[in-house]
C-alpha cells in the first residue's frame, strides 16, 4: 500500500494554512482566510505560492517557502490531526502482512517527524517524500522512486491511496491502481474527473475495501 500523508492519514489544515499566512504576512501580502486556503493542501508548495504571490520570480518563491518552513518545522507539523481509525487500519494491514509505504510530496524530513510524533512510523517500511531542494516533489516521480522498493511481481497488487488528483495522476503514470478518499481535500468534481479505480467516503469504507 502506497499512502499519501496530508488529507489521507492526517488532517494538516491548521498547520499548513497558518504557516502560509505567516509567510504572506512577513512578505506584506494580503492574507486569505484560512477556509479559502484548502486548495493548497496537496499540491507542491512552490506551485501554490506562485498562485498566492502571482509571481514566477524564483527568489521571491524561495523566500516564501523559507518563511513557511520556519514556522512549519517548529509549530505547524505538530498541528496535524490524525484521522480517527487510521492507526488501527495501518496496524491491521501490517499484521496481515501488507507493506505500508509513504509517498508524500511533503518534505521527507517533515513526514518522518509527523509519523514519529503520532507513533505511526513503525507501520511503514518505507517513508518517502520530497527533498528540501525540490527533488521528488512531482507525484509521478515520487511514486516511481517509492516503487523501486516493490518487487516487480508485486506491482500488480500495489495500490496508491490519496485524496487529490495528483495521487491519481501519479499512480496512473506508474501503472498501479489508486483509491481516492473523500474525507480529505479533493473535491467531488476533482476526483470524478481524475477517475480513480475506487472512491471511498470514510476511513471505515477504506478499511472495508482494503481488508476483505
Q: How would you briefly describe this protein structure?
A:
By secondary structure, the chain is an alpha/beta fold.
- SS content category: alpha/beta
Instruction: Describe the strand arrangement of the main beta sheet, using strand numbers.
Output: 5-4-1-6-7-8
Query: How many beta-strand elements?
Result: 8
Given as residue ranges, the uncertain stretches (5+ residues, pLDDT < 50) are none
Q: How is the biggest beta sheet arranged? A: 6 strands, parallel
Straight-line N-to-C gap: 15 Å
CATH class of the largest domain: Alpha Beta
In the CATH hierarchy, what is the superfamily of the largest domain? HAD superfamily/HAD-like
Beta-strand percent range: 15-25%
Percentage of residues assigned to helices: 40-55%
SSE string, helices as H and strands as E = EEHHHEHEHEHEHEHEH
Number of helices: 9
pLDDT averaged over residues: 96
What is the CATH third-level topology name of the largest domain? Answer: Rossmann fold
- Label the overall shape: globular
Q: How many separate domains? A: 2
Radius of gyration: 17 Å
CATH architect. name of the largest domain = 3-Layer(aba) Sandwich
Characterise the protein shown here:
- It is a single chain.
- The model has no long low-confidence stretch (mean pLDDT 96).
- The protein has two domains: 2-11 and 80-210, Rossmann fold (3-Layer(aba) Sandwich), CATH 3.40.50; 13-79, DNA polymerase, domain 1 (Orthogonal Bundle), CATH 1.10.150.240.
- The longest helix is centred in the first third of the chain and has 17 residues, at 58-74.
- The radius of gyration is 17 Å and the shape is globular.
- The strands form two sheets. A six-stranded parallel beta sheet has the order 5-4-1-6-7-8, with helices on both faces.
- The protein contains nine helices and eight strands.
- The protein has helices spanning 13-26, 45-53, 58-74, 86-95, 108-117, 139-146, 165-173, 188-194, 203-210; strands spanning 2-3, 10-11, 81-82, 100-107, 124-130, 159-162, 177-181, 198-200.
- The protein is an alpha/beta fold.
- It starts with a strand and ends with a helix.
Amino acid at each position: 500500500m502506497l499512502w499519501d500523508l496530508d488529507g489521507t492519514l492526517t488532517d494538516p489544515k491548521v498547520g499548513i494554512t497558518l504557516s502560509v499566512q505567516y509567510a504572506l504576512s512577513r512578505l506584506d501580502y494580503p492574507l486569505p482566510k484560512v477556509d479559502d486556503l484548502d486548495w493548497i493542501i496537496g499540491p507542491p508548495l512552490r506551485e501554490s505560492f506562485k498562485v498566492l504571490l502571482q509571481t514566477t520570480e524564483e527568489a521571491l518563491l524561495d523566500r516564501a517557502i523559507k518563511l513557511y518552513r520556519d514556522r512549519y518545522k517548529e509549530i505547524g507539523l505538530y498541528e496535524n490531526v490524525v484521522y480517527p481509525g487510521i492507526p488501527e487500519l495501518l496496524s491491521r494491514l501490517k499484521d496481515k502482512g501488507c507493506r505500508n509505504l509513504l509517498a508524500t510530496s511533503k518534505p521527507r524530513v517533515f513526514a518522518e517527524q509527523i509519523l514519529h510524533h503520532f507513533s505511526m512510523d513503525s507501520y511503514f517500511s518505507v517513508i518517502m517524500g520530497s527533498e528540501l531542494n525540490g527533488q521528488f516533489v512531482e507525484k509521478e516521480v515520487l511514486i516511481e522512486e517509492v516503487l523501486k522498493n516493490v518487487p516487480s511481481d508485486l506491482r500488480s497488487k500495489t495500490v496508491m491511496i490519496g485524496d487529490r488528483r495528483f495521487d491519481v495522476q501519479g499512480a496512473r503514470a506508474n501503472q498501479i491502481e489508486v483509491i481516492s478518499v473523500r474525507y480529505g481535500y479533493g473535491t467531488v468534481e476533482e476526483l470524478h474527473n481524475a477517475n480513480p479505480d475506487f472512491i471511498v467516503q470514510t476511513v471505515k469504507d477504506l478499511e472495508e475495501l482494503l481488508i476483505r
